[in-house]
Amino acid sequence: MTEYPPFAVTVDLVVLTVRDDEFCVLLVRRGVPPYQDRWALPGGFVGFDEDLPDAAARELTEETGVPEPVGHLEQLGTYGGPKRDPRGRVVTVAYLALLPDLPTPVAGTDAAAADWLPVSRIADAELAFDHDLILGDGLERARAKLEYTPLATAFCPPEFTIARLRTVYETVWGTRLDPRNFHRKVTSTPGFVESVGRATEGDRGRPAQLYRRGTAELLHPPMLRP
Q: For every residue of 8-52, which 3-state class applies, written as one string?
């Protein structure tokens, strides 16, 4: 009879937001070995009686002080390379969270620091474990889903202007969009956004209509990049 070695299960989170017009990821600086002092995705071991989403929410709060995600949370993938963790055989289930801008995180448990870091500044950084791979997959998933779903609204507050939403697309995709064309696409796509019937003061004192996320799960037609 074949014998299999025991293994542990962890959860890791790719938590993304748009902060000060920059596409940012939530990272923690590890305070303990292995990879002490290296940046890593928040996460940790799953308890024996703990469901995976519950473990992800708990680790996020314990390591960064960020409350349970109030935006979008989905399972990203499973990573089980035999040498991904020097402590032994560890399989991790990664989650992707898209959140509106939140306060500066506070490090806890085994994290020495926690911060929102611009994605553009960590492109060449060596994250702990295989978190470079997981982060890359999370960024690709997020950028792709903005193409055909209304998930860009997860980066916005409950009520937002079309200009605010356009900034999200421009920041995540790293490109400029024509304001009039974007406004037309967004407001003419069924179920994308809904007017709340109020306006706020926009740029140069011009009133800007406020919107909230609509009921659509998919965008028809998709928001094609220029």
A: EEEEEEEEEEEECCEEEEEEEEECCCCCCCCEECCEEECCCCCCH
Closest CA to 19 of 201, 204, 163, 172: 172
- Name the residue among 185, 145, 143, 142 with its Cα closest to residue 162: 185
Task: Name residues of the chain where pLDDT drops below 50.
Answer: none
**3 state SS of 112:** strand
- Of the chain, the end-to-end C-alpha distance in Å amounts to 58
Q: How many CA atoms lie within 13 A of 61 on its CB side?
A: 10
The partner residues of 11 in beta bridges, in order of sequence, read 44, 93
Residue type, 105: P
Q: What is the pTM of this model?
A: 0.90
Q: Which one-letter DSSP state was computed for residue 4?
A: -
Name which of 39, 194, 14, 183 is nearest 99 in CA terms. 14
Residues 6+ apart with CB under 8 A from 27: 39, 40, 41, 42, 114, 115, 117, 122, 127
Mind listing the pLDDT tens digit for each residue in 127-172?
999 999 999 999 999 999 999 999 999 999 999 999 999 999 999 9
